[in-house]
Design goal:
about 120 residues, alpha/beta, Signal recognition particle alu RNA binding heterodimer, srp9/1, 2,3-Dihydroxybiphenyl 1,2-Dioxygenase, domain 1, 2 domains, globular, Glyas_Bleomycin-R_OHBP_Dase, Glyoxalase_6, Glyoxalase-like domain-containing protein
Length: about 120
């Protein structure tokens, strides 16, 4: 017997607004039934599980133990700039002079995620 990964759940203070941010990040739509004020929302990814946002009463207080890693279809640095323009904040720089490494950003509620090199940069 096995289990199938249904979703990646993200606790948050405002499910709809955070789902909108991640919808812009991924270029994928919200569930068609989601609307402002919903306490649970989903971003429907092209493949794999959905991103599920669930409102909780407590704020984020420490570093994530689980995080998302994004591989952009552009360069890593171009994607970092785009995401900063969407409302992300820069957390840490693990980019190396030889072009390897990643950047750590946080979404509008402080959840950290990594931006990896794009496919063309890895070739």
């Amino acid at each position: 017997m096995t289990s199938v990964l249904q979703n990646v759940a993200i606790d948050c203070a405002n499910a709809y607004e955070l789902a909108l941010f991640w919808s812009k990040v991924t270029g994928r739509p919200l569930h068609p039934d989601d609307k402002p004020g919903d306490r649970e929302t989903e971003v429907l990814l092209a493949e794999g599980p959905v991103l599920y946002f669930n409102e909780v009463p407590e704020p984020k207080t420490v570093k994530n133990r689980l995080h998302l890693c994004l591989r952009p279809d552009t360069s890593r640095d171009e994607e970092v700039e785009r995401l900063l323009g969407l409302g992300a904040t820069f957390v840490g720089d693990h980019r190396n002079p030889d072009g390897t490494g990643w950047a750590i950003l946080a979404d509008p509620e402080g959840n950290e995620f990594c931006v990896l090199r794009g496919e063309s940069e890895r070739a």
